[in-house]
Amino acid sequence: MPFVQQRYGKANVRVLRLHRQGDYHEVREVRVKVTLDGEFTRAYTQADNAPVVTTDSMKNLVQVLALEHLARANEPFSLAIAQCFLDRYAHVAKALVEIDETSWSRMQVDGQPHDHSFVKAEGGTPFAAVTVTRSSQDIVAGIRDFQIMKTTQSGFVGYVRDEYTTLPETTDRILATRLQAAWRFKSAQPTDYAAVTKAIRAALLQVFATTYSDSVQDSVYRMGEAALAAAPDIAEITLSMPNIHYLPISLSHFGLETQDQLFLPTDEPNGHIEATMRRG
């Protein structure tokens, strides 16, 4: 029986790094997934474990590398992990490292940022996904579950209407989504990954908040266009914007008019709009 392909690894390796400078502390918390490909076929077809790097060893290596590299951004930390497996094990041909970050913001106490107390940050989950082979590397970063809303300056008209269309047209609606943005870096690595992320996030929100949206598709394209203009270090960006619907609630049965003040949040079923924009 032909053996087509394999990959294996260790998922959900969680680690928090605490950096102390006297009473002033900084924290970084991540969840890491490592996936390896290479000369592992005989472990499956011949019950020979000789080439198998145990997933427990993968967990240990991630923790060791976290001591030195977790203070840096997710992208270089991912690269360090992936390169470590290629350097240590000659039969590993490709390493994929995925990182989700749990972001912590400094707690405000008496109007001042506290030295060593934190609250979980809002604004989505930063992530990185790095694939490294013997001859190439691919770096993708982004943010997922970034929930954003605008309560006006959005509409949807002029779409296909047939016997199955029940959706009314509107030029003023709530637009809300759980944004996922993933950007791929050019071959040259930037000097400041955090600055790239900050520039992209600002560009996305600027378009979303300050311009009229004729559709989610319209917003997706213009947000992606703005992100590419704001971050010269990226080659392309993919945006996914599923609808979170806010449906008007009627209280007419009780003789009350809501005057467009009450809405029912619902995200199932939802429209799912996704597009990739790339430099020309």
UniProtKB/TrEMBL annotation:
* Record carries keyword Protease: no
Give binding positions for O2: T55, N243
Q: Which reaction does it catalyse?
A: urate + O2 + H2O = 5-hydroxyisourate + H2O2
Active site per the UniProt annotation: K10, T55, H245
Q: Where is the signal peptide?
A: none
Pfam families, alphabetized: Uricase
The entry lists its GO molecular-function terms as: urate oxidase activity
Q: Which residues bind 5-hydroxyisourate per the record?
A: T55, D56, F156, R173, V216, Q217, N243
Residues noted as binding urate in the record, renumbered to the chain: T55, D56, F156, R173, V216, Q217, N243
Pathway it works in: Purine metabolism; urate degradation; (S)-allantoin from urate: step 1/3
Q: What is its EC number?
A: 1.7.3.3
Q: What does this protein do?
A: Catalyzes the oxidation of uric acid to 5-hydroxyisourate, which is further processed to form (S)-allantoin.
Q: Which family is this protein grouped under?
A: Belongs to the uricase family.
What protein name applies here? Uricase
